[in-house]
């Protein structure tokens, strides 16, 4: 039997189950996300990420378990509860003939204490597109508009479902700094992403979900035993590429330094990346 | 907890109405096909079918009632079916369902849109009819009949359009299904041809649907009472017009409540 729900957490989940036919798409997930935290949910397509998130957002019903989001059951969340959360859907906010500023102004009117639409445009870097219609924007601009629509209501909790898909590298960097400034304002965020560098860059903790189960929750640097994993030291000797796993890379490098007269040819020390451990984890559980 | 209060309903309703009006009138396709199409029909058919139907009345005078009924059908049923199906498949509806917007506000916005488009269509049709073809405008109490037939008809067709939108996969498939159905209904409901000259079995089919009754109710407004004798029933049957349209309002409402979805079917 798992622990009771954590009333102080932004999101608290115990034994969450969602069935499609006779398959458990979500199969007993326990999860606590603290207030003010950025939590990244990772997992391959079809692992149950979006289903889990959409249950937390109140879009889908569940077949088992307990869920509390900002102190309420999402299945029964009313308008007041909805006013506390912001949602950036994978599918975006739809096509529109309205301008960015008009869309944000309309959206702001649904909330009790919205942000200033013009300030939100500034925050997502769309100020010069304020008068452009929603459907005339490029893919990346549109995604930033989706984020703007998600935050204009001043949510305490923001869901971001694959927010940077289709961004160029520069747009992603800009987006990351936007997320950091939202964190500084105290917004709790649940992020799903396929980009492991994004999770590593932004998330306080990451959770890996595969086949409907949450297999591990950890800070990015320690996921999959990454913190204790041996380093790989590689170099070139006698015209051949050599490499060696070692828990004490400094000692090995010192030894190599003594062995070679000058620079150690092509010396490199690496540790497993988040991507390495992630791929290993989802490989094992398949 | 000193949470600020949610915005009042009336304000959200106003915002949604403004959104829906902009969405419609800024989209060239919807303005041309929904608003201007009946006007083009009036101009073309008025010029081509230039003959008397008896009692010194031109076919254009007869057609005026039909084309207004078709315009109402376009502004309500076709507009809602295609528009909402599009918004469901492109994620607009799912997005709105994730906000604290009261659900009723979405429908209030749509009703405001239908109302504005209907009024615009009717005004333009009447103007064109009068200026181009010397159509006689109804007088006095006939406007009252005009108002209730138009109101009841567009209420029924709006609700049906909302219900039909849930059957379609997306906006394009809604358009591909609804447009030909509406066209066939127009042919058999006495829009393009005199209803009494349509084969009886087609009249029977048409009698099931609201368009025939809207057209008939509007004919009572635009035609002299002596022409009521030409109707298959020998009269305008205004009581039955009211009854059938009200029945469709009820059926449409039940269908809407039972079938409306905020998400795409493919979305699970």
Automatic annotation (TrEMBL), chain A:
GO biological process, one term: response to antibiotic
ABC transporter domain boundaries: 11-236
Signal peptide from the UniProt entry: none
Main location group: membrane
UniProt xrefs under InterPro entries: AAA+_ATPase, ABC_transporter-like_ATP-bd, ABC_transporter-like_CS, ABC_transporter_ATP-binding, P-loop_NTPase
Subcellular location(s) per record: Cell membrane
Gene3D superfamilies in the record: P-loop containing nucleotide triphosphate hydrolases (3.40.50.300)
GO molecular function, one term: ATP hydrolysis activity
Gene Ontology cellular-component terms listed: plasma membrane
The entry's keywords: Antibiotic resistance, ATP-binding, Cell membrane, Membrane, Nucleotide-binding, Translocase, Transport
Membrane topology: Peripheral membrane protein
Pfam families with a match to the protein in the record: ABC_tran (PF00005)
Name recorded for this polypeptide: ABC-2 type transport system ATP-binding protein
Biological source species: Klenkia brasiliensis
From TrEMBL, chain B:
Superkingdom per UniProt: Bacteria
Presence of keyword Transmembrane: yes
Localization, UniProt: Cell membrane; Membrane
Domain annotation ABC transmembrane type-2: ranges: 29-263
Membrane-protein topology: Multi-pass membrane protein
Keywords linked to the UniProt accession: Antibiotic resistance, Cell membrane, Membrane, Transmembrane, Transmembrane helix, Transport
InterPro entries in alphabetical order: ABC2_TM, ABC2_TM_bact-type, ABC_2_transport, Nod_factor_ABC_transporter
MF terms in GO: ABC-type transporter activity
GO CC entries: ATP-binding cassette (ABC) transporter complex
Ranges annotated as spanning the membrane: 31-49, 61-86, 107-135, 141-164, 176-195, 241-260
GO terms classed as biological process: response to antibiotic
Family designation: Belongs to the ABC-2 integral membrane protein family.
Protein name per UniProt: Transport permease protein
Species of the source: Klenkia brasiliensis
Lineage: Bacteria, Bacillati, Actinomycetota, Actinomycetes, Geodermatophilales
